[in-house]
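User: I've been trying to design a sequence by hand for this structure and keep getting stuck. Would you show me what you'd pick, starting by listing the structure so we're on the same page?

Assistant: Good idea, let's start from the same input. This is the structure you sent:
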């Protein structure tokens, strides 16, 4: 299949209706959740009924920056982004999440308020774990303490990597690196093409890379002209990953 043929193939559209995910999807998400990596399948099956499943429209907030931190969440289906206001009043996207990734926090973990806002990017389902349930799970399974510590350290390292990237890389490198990160986490390989089948806007990429939407548009246009990426309504495709990696490395 040629590049031109691939460019005419749209990626799968998402449903426009909110939903709450069925139990097999919820269990699969919990088993993929790093915080519960130390638990057996039987233990996860016992815990799952104590969590609340919520369906969200695209663009709907799951929680808001600065609210009291009362729950942990795990994304069971769909895509969500974490963003927070910067000192200049513009939102900064700190992460884009796929199924099995946890987000949010709890006062009992030393964070009294949410450090970001969580927003569904597509029709999504998230499982909510309240403070009381999480405390009980920790009491029943003390070995979870190590995975909780690992998760806290992982989030800290992610924040440090973002700071290093934004302070060191040029415009093209930042965008290429962001696209590669999303491809690794959420990409859907189809032959030589890697599809990102969720509505990734220029504003989202700008908020991830510390640039303006206009700058992002210019860089994406250049990448499209070079046959490295393609974009359409509600989808992005990486057509040539080796060349995109070369751009990211400068």
């Amino acid at each position: 299949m040629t590049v031109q043929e691939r460019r005419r193939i749209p990626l799968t559209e998402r449903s426009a209706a909110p939903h709450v995910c069925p139990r097999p999807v919820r269990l699969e998400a919990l088993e993929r959740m790093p915080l519960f990596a130390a638990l057996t399948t039987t233990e996860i099956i016992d815990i799952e009924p104590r969590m609340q499943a919520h369906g969200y429209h695209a663009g709907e907030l799951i929680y808001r920056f600065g609210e009291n931190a009362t729950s942990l969440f795990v994304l069971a289906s769909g895509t969500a982004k974490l963003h927070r206001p910067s000192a200049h009043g513009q939102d900064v996207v700190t992460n884009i999440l796929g199924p099995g990734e946890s987000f949010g926090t709890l006062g009992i973990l030393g964070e009294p308020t949410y450090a970001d806002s969580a927003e569904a990017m597509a029709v999504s389902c998230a499982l909510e774990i309240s403070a009381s349930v999480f405390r009980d799970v920790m009491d029943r399974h003390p070995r979870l303490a190590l995975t909780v510590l690992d998760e806290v350290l992982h989030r800290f390292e992610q924040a440090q990597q973002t700071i290093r990237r934004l302070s060191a890389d040029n415009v093209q490198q930042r965008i290429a690196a962001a696209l590669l990160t999303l491809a690794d986490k959420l990409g859907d390989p189809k032959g030589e093409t890697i599809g990102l089948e969720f509505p990734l806007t220029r504003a989202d990429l700008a908020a991830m890379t510390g640039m303006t939407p206009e700058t992002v548009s210019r860089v994406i246009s250049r990448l499209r002209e070079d046959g490295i990426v393609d974009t359409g309504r509600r989808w992005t495709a990486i057509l040539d990953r080796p060349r995109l990696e070369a751009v990211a490395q400068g």
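That's my pick for every position. To get oriented when you compare it with your attempt: DSSP finds nine helices and twelve strands in the chain. The longest helix spans residues 144-168.
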